[in-house]
Amino acid sequence: MTIFYTFIFLPLISAMLVPLLYKYFNRIVHTGWFVLLVPSSIFVYLLQYIPGVAAGDTYKYTLSWIPSLDMNIVSYVDGLSLLFGLLISGVGTLVIIYSIFYMSKVREALHNFYIYLLMFMGAMLGLVFSDHLLVLYGFWELTSVSSFLLISYWYERKSSRQGALKALLITVLGGFGMLAGFIMLIMMADTYSIREMIANLDVIQSHALFIPAMLCILLGAFTKSAQFPFGIWLPDAMEAPTPVSSYLHSATMVKAGIYLVARMTPIFGGSSVWFWLVAGIGIITMLYGSLTALRQTDLKAMLAYSTISQLGLIMCLLGVGSLAVYFGPGESGTIFTVATFAALFHLFNHSTFKGSLFMVVGIIDHETGRRDIRYLGGLMQVMPVTFTIALIGGLSMAGLPPFNGFLSKEMFFAAVNDVSQTGIFGLSSIGILFPIIAWVASIFTFVYCMIFVFKTFGGQYRPEKLTRKVHEAPWGMLFSPALLALLVIFIFFFPNVLGKYILTPALTAILPMMPMSPYDLKISAWHGLNMELVMTIGVIVVGLLLFKTTKQWIQTMRSYPQKLTLNHWYNQGLSGTERLSVSLTNRYMTGSLRHYLIYIFSFFVIVLISSLLLLHGLQFDFASNAAISIFDAGLVLGMVIAAGTVLFAGNRIVAIVALGALGYMVSMFFVIFRAPDLALTQMVVETVTTVLFLLCFYHLPKLTKSIERIPFKLTNLVISIAMGLTVTLLALSANGHKLFEPISSFFENAFELAGAKNIVNAILVDFRGFDTMLEISVLVIAGLGVYVFIHQRSKRREQNEIE
Amino acid sequence: MKSNDVILKSVTRVAAVIILTFSIYLFMNGHHHPGGGFIGGLSMASSIVLLYLSFGIEKVRENIRVDFKKLSAIGVLIAVATGMVSAVFGKPFLTQTFGHVDLPIFGDTELASALIFDTGVALAVIGTAVNIILSISEDR
């Protein structure tokens, strides 16, 4: 167990070492070489789970965190989490090798980069292995935060900051929705564990909150996985360094939403709402992404939209696959089980070819200084290796043999054809739309893949349009994409190795109720001449025609009005919200301290008095009170006089001194009631605050020269009387109630428990030590705050004087 | 604080020593009698403030070369570190312990880990109080 958690938390732990390594070794060794050890060792560690998981075993580990609240880091290794764990650590290893050559050792703040990257890696691993819903949510938000930090890595650029903000706003919005959904799920199932929820399906599915919880959770999944219409953050996230785009925004993080949908399929699958939302939004996203990718001239933006489109494809397959839950074991069920299998297969394939394509774009950007296809062309002659990799990745994405994309694309076509022939959920009438949209979107996919590969590498080589001398990338940058490209081909020829050891166990995790026969899940390149093959041939023919005639239609596509894009609406919405919030905030944040005190005190009075009245707490019991002695009466009299002096003083010094006197008299009360600790504290605090008051007094504007009273304000009077009354009533009625057994008897054992004769001190440093620790932290933070505020102000004033 | 106030200065010379001694007494005594880190720290801070008031900031700074911002941070770190130590020994965070030791001169003495925690509290309080007062008074 310890070993498992050591490896899962290895990225987070080693992130702490990165600054040291950067500081002392970066001049000699690129920090990336040290970081490389982390994902590679995790990958090797996770590999040893494959035989067990493939044989149907699962592993459960528990690390207790807050056991009293049932908050524990419960991890569960099954096929699905293992698939993701391998992807995260495997692609992570390749991306870090690539980044060592991509990120300059001299110019870049490498320690920041690797800390964020490791933070993301740790969060993502925690997410996929977590069985506890709230822990999963915590890691989910941590991935959003680290993605934000990585997108804004080059924070001097405005577009980086804006892209990061957009990604954060959208994904965190979805995250909140998801949290609400999780809480509903927890309420329904009365457990935090996903495993136990799947075991108690009946309770959840018959509950009234079933649909709201589903919608909320899907909001989280769709925002994270950039589904329509939330996908607009992904293209802007391309401002991040390319290794980040390739890792977070194509291979791993954007697949967290897919992971969540797959995880929740046993719970929500089989419902018509789930099917329509997941499959419907998925296929619309696929069409939207591929259509918008065509319009892009920036290679990275094109890949971003293509990622959106491919994620839509996977989402759609998962939606179709959820029908298996509806049909249950049987012939129809098996057909849709295969759709889920195809989703997993395409997920893996997408990580391989899209990862390599992103790295290719990074190479082009790095070597030519350009990412715009209008300036590129003919790079085939100067960068033959890069071209080969791009060709393999591009054709795989287009769905051509002999590359792995062909296999999963065929399975996708098969799945949508099956859907159109299913008569449930109203599919008999409009189900035919699924294969049509899928086919059209695939044509667009084919065309942009061609544009990507041949507009960049084919055609005329025009060195005059490029800013630097172009040559082939160093071997280190080629290594990772080349390895991925080899994998693309390898999987085409031996898909069943992957299918048997990785994908089938993952499928078992998504659809535990379905019996799997190895025969159904066999992937083969040749199915005979069937509908799917005809569709693929159609895609190629129409796609080639469109590609040949690109010049005729591409300008029309690019002149699509900016006002009708989702981005435009997002910007409008954002600035509208900002305006609204500014005007609303300005209404009450007037800058007047008096107003703020009025808000605070009236809120205090209203809440306390109304709860006192509503809860019938207004009871007095004077029976056990001690008799009032002459000292008490005298002190009260003195306090009233001091308070009156504060009110009617014409001079601020008099008021402050009178306030001090009032405080000293309160400490006398502590003396009378035999609380020497409190008396001492009150006395010293009173002394120090009086000094503080006198210092602040220096900064206040002078009262009017003629000595006159501060003008009378009725609001002040009402609020101060109400405040005094509230506190008095509260104190008196608190004395009249004894709802619970007093806990003071516990503290009386201070000498036995803490070895201290002074109970007050024992409470402060021992029994309630946590409180004290946080209190002094707050105190120090406040002190530093005062220091910073004042020093910044005087610094600014000095600068003004110099100017 | 420009005025040349002889009486104040002469009194402060004696009083500061007494207050400082008393504040250390309050701090050390806190485990069994009234006192403790908070009170001890605050009264020490008030004696330092008294020095500032009577001798001026520059002169005192020359003689007490302590960065009070760092002092307060060190205090919090000490307090958190004592919590960590108990966690290292497998106990819940911030568990305190005590024991009796026979020291040569003092005889049977009680040593409590709470005293280390209290030192952190005292340093944080001294640092913060002096820091705030210094910042405000320097802002001219």
UniProtKB/TrEMBL annotation, chain A:
| Molecular function terms from GO | antiporter activity
NADH:quinone oxidoreductase/Mrp antiporter transmembrane domain segment(s)? 130-433
Please report the stretch or stretches of sequence annotated as the MrpA C-terminal/MbhD domain.
638-702
**Membrane topology category:** Multi-pass membrane protein
Q: Which residues form the MrpA C-terminal/MbhE domain?
A: 714-791
Q: Where is the NADH-Ubiquinone oxidoreductase (complex I) chain 5 N-terminal domain?
A: 66-113
Q: What is its main location?
A: membrane
Q: Which Pfam families match?
A: MbhD, MbhE, Proton_antipo_M, Proton_antipo_N
Any one Gene Ontology BP term: sodium ion transport
Which keywords belong to this entry? Antiport, Cell membrane, Hydrogen ion transport, Ion transport, Membrane, Sodium, Sodium transport, Transmembrane, Transmembrane helix, Transport
Q: Per its UniProt record, what InterPro entries does this chain match? A: CPA3_Na-H_Antiporter_A, MrpA/MnhA1/PhaAB, MrpA_C/MbhD, MrpA_C/MbhE, ND/Mrp_TM, Proton_antipo_N
Location(s) in or outside the cell: Cell membrane; Membrane
Q: Where are the transmembrane segments?
A: 6-25, 32-53, 73-101, 113-129, 135-155, 167-189, 204-223, 244-262, 274-291, 303-327, 379-403, 423-454, 475-503, 523-547, 596-615, 627-648, 653-673, 679-700, 712-732, 772-790
| A cellular-component GO term for this protein | plasma membrane
Name the PANTHER family for this protein.
NA(+)/H(+) ANTIPORTER SUBUNIT (PTHR43373), NA(+)_H(+) ANTIPORTER SUBUNIT A (PTHR43373:SF1)
Family, per entry: Belongs to the CPA3 antiporters (TC 2.A.63) subunit A family.
Protein name, UniProt field: Na+/H+ antiporter subunit A
- Give the classification, highest ranks: Bacteria, Bacillati, Bacillota, Bacilli, Bacillales
TrEMBL record, chain B:
The subcellular localization recorded is: Cell membrane
- TM segment ranges: 7-28, 34-53, 74-94, 114-134
Q: Which UniProt keywords apply?
A: Cell membrane, Membrane, Transmembrane, Transmembrane helix
A Gene Ontology CC term for this entry? plasma membrane
Q: For the Na+/H+ antiporter MnhB subunit-related protein domain, which residue ranges apply?
A: 7-130
Signal peptide span: none
Membrane topology annotation = Multi-pass membrane protein
* Primary location class: membrane
What is the similarity comment for this entry?
Belongs to the CPA3 antiporters (TC 2.A.63) subunit B family.
Q: What is this protein called?
A: Na(+)/H(+) antiporter subunit B
